[in-house]
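Retry 2 of 3 after timeout on previous attempt. Resubmitting structure tokens to design endpoint.
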């Protein structure tokens, strides 16, 4: 099939998905016809509906190699693309490493979700030793450290996560929250702005930026 027909075909698949809401069927149909590189090109160059379809497909089929495209989609002109990118990019952040490493990362995510922070830190430290290039391992340990009020250590891990993944708005927000707890509001504002620059859809972060700007201006 020629590349000129790929966009419309993807559009048809996406329309079918919108009708039946079956992600598995959409994923299987796209996987049969498209490579990740083609989806990435459509995500950046297609029309509005094709960009939505491509970003959703990358969320289901892509891995961390699609991070840059998904990160740029956070600033797309279309709100639908931006929403799909925000949901999808979080999933591809967990798709680094081999099957064993991904499984360990998922265990850490679950430990944080169930507030077993000490165990999350131990497992994240083990994973970081094996895969120091895995940004989400650093971010998950940062989350656990933050929850235990170990803010300076959490900041260090957030910075490392952002060094490895420049689109990690979650790590930027985490740093901002740490600085807020430490009473360092100018630094918190800087980090909130950084998160908002990466992902303009973070309305809670936008509210923090406005609040801190007013507070700091009134102090001058």
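Retry 2 succeeded. Sequence:
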């Amino acid at each position: 099939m020629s590349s000129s027909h790929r966009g419309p075909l993807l559009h048809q698949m996406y329309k079918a998905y919108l009708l039946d809401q079956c992600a598995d069927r959409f994923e299987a149909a796209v996987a049969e016809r498209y490579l990740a590189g083609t989806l990435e090109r459509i995500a950046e160059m297609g029309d509005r509906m094709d960009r939505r379809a491509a970003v959703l497909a990358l969320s289901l089929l892509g891995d961390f190699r699609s991070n840059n495209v998904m990160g740029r989609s956070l600033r797309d002109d279309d709100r639908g693309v931006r929403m799909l990118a925000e949901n999808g990019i979080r999933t591809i952040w967990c798709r680094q490493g081999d099957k064993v490493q991904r499984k360990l990362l998922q265990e850490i995510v679950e430990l944080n979700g169930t507030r077993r922070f000490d165990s999350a830190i131990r497992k994240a430290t083990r994973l970081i030793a094996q895969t120091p290039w895995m940004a989400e391992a650093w971010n998950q340990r940062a989350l656990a450290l933050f929850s235990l009020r170990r803010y300076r250590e959490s900041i260090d891990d957030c910075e490392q996560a952002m060094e490895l993944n420049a689109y990690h708005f979650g790590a930027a927000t985490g740093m901002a929250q740490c600085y807020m707890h430490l009473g360092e509001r100018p630094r918190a504002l800087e980090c909130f702005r950084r998160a908002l620059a990466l992902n303009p859809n973070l309305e809670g972060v936008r509210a923090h930026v406005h609040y801190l700007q007013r507070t700091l201006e009134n102090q001058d």
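Attempt log closed. The radius of gyration is 19 Å.
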